[in-house]
Amino acid sequence: SLFAIRAVTNSTGAVNQNAYYPGADKCEALGFDTVTTAARGTYCGSYTSNAARSISNKRQFYSAYGYGTFDFTDTTQGWASLNYYTTKAAASSGTEFWSTSGDRFNQTRAGAATQYIYTPNLGQLVTLQRVFTPEELGGNEAATTKYDEYTYDFNVGVRGNFADRFDWEASAGYGYYDYKMDRPRLLAQAVHDYFLGPVQGYVNSTGGTTGNAIYPVYNLNLDRWASPITPQIYQSFATRVINRSETSVANANFNVSGDLFELPAGAVGFAGVMEWNRQKMDMVSDPRTDQLRPIDNQTIYNLTSSGETHGTRDRYAVGAEFRVPIFSSLSANAAARYDKYDDISSVDAATTYNMGLEWRPFSNLLVRGSYATSFRAPDMQLIYAQGAASYTTELDEYACRSGTGAGAAQGPRTRAQCQAPTTDPTKYSVQTLVAGNPNLTEEKGKSWGAGFVYDITDGMSLTVDYYRIRLEDAAAQLSNDYLLRSEAACLLGSTSDPARPMPSAALCSQLSSLITRVNSPGAPDDGRITRINNAYINTALQDTSGIDATYKYALDTDRWGRFNVDLGYSLTLTNKYKQLKDEPLVDYRDLPPENWYPERSRARGSLTWTKGDWATTVFGTRYGSAFSNAEADGTNSVGGSYPRRLAPYFLWNLSVGKKFGENVLATFQV
To answer: How much is the pTM?
Structure first.
């Protein structure tokens, strides 16, 4: 496409419409069609650009695996295994894109990035947008992203038996993974200079030099702007961006299991384990994509960095488990484990345990219950990431609901009204800054469970279990949507959905330091978000409970083969959550969730028929209702209506297989 999107309404047309149409001949020369829409007016666009993308990645891989054993004695055996895998893949987007939105060299008088430019050729403030076709780039290969990766792991061990009742095994291993991505991108300064050249001055939103004259002026060469480039020109402002990642893990383990002694009801079983594990991570993005790096002639256009992550973590653990038969129909399980972490985080060590009872009042009925504690360190990326900036499209809820800033032209609206259109001025690209947090602590959990397994008849069984899981200090990232929703609620005094609780006063007081907006009264971008400072935190509490049930039935017939029925059902009873410690604990089971859109129930079922060489399975899953993204009844851009909660939906799978001899199996799947 080829756009010059109008920034303000003037005598030539409305805001957000195309301000320059070069004519049908120019459109055709670019490989585009003439398109007219109510939202954009008349412009050069394409109905077929998606066809330039690769449908399936090109892929070539090799793998090898080896395993061997050696008997030292009748009771001691050594073993070793080696696994290797390498792959090369490629995918093509087919096109490249450039716009003054995302051009870091397009700056206001104060040096802030802006999407707007003023060009005397058009006599108004516009946002430029240009898509380069495969023919301009030099074919699809020029827009191809290449992926190279390989991995291997090597493990050795010795296992044996002693005292005729204990099995033991000692093992050690090492694994390595290497990944490289090589992709084409534009050099920000080179493409900027090719189309715009040097800045000629600064004007206000109407082209005047008085008042708020902050927008850059460029002498845009319209003939160059609306003419195809050659592959040689493309190469003059293109480059290749390379991201790499290396990870490795080394471990050593020793475990032993067996019966300790006999009780009247049976033997007391024991299992013990000792572990050591070292993880190492080195992830390096192309430094030219770092949004925090000063811009220069190597700055990459409109591509953000994942930053760098370098870190090592050691973990030591020891654990033991016992199974004690109390009576012939009652047994107990007990286990304890000690884990210690050595890294830069605030995580140190913890002891966790679990206990369980199993009771068989009848031979075909098992009743069980358990209680357990848990401990989990944050992922290494969450503590070692050195920081990076990224861009995502967000809904500016305050601008939407207040009718200010980006939403001034439309006036105050509901969140659903702003979410419904595919494009809306209150939905735009926002920069997010985030870095690892070495102050993260470990996630701590408690869980309870009770249930039964009932063998109704031969081949028919029913299982029902109740569970409750309580997690404290789980590591998570404050989502941009959560922050922007909270900001709007704090400033307007109400949430977009009355069912949502108001943010705490403590959170409201922090939001101004987390969300940065343009302060330029009278300018088109006044009030727009320029940056969100995000962070990884330890969330306060998540408390979830529910019921899981399964039913299985197998029927053998003499003439018709074997039939298997497998049904499952899961129901969430409570889904309580609070992100910050001073917030109220809210049950989101029947409310719009803060950070996810879960269904309250899920059912699955399969019917399998086997006879001789034939096997057929029908498998289906029913997902229960869940809140829509808009979280309110509404109408979409084509006039269709949608409810606050989305109706349940089904997924079905069918497979049919037949054996042809011992070594050939054909399968058809839908």
So the answer is: 0.80
